[in-house]
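TL;DR need structure tokens for one chain.
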Amino acid sequence: MPDSVYKVVTLVGASEESWEKAASAAIAQAAQSLRDLRIAKVVEQDIHIENGTTLTYRVKLEVSFKYEGGA
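>> reply
TL;DR here they are.
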């Protein structure tokens, strides 16, 4: 099996419904421009609150994909 190299990028997803949907939104968007996504690691979660009401769930992810050279 040949050696492989993976690149890791940080993404932030947001949802008005849940952290799970926020993570899914970030991954779905990344999949439109990045090929061969491999692993997503949740590194931070937070909630935007206004006037005592939850407005947005946010998730910071580290997402890895197979590196094929270039920038």
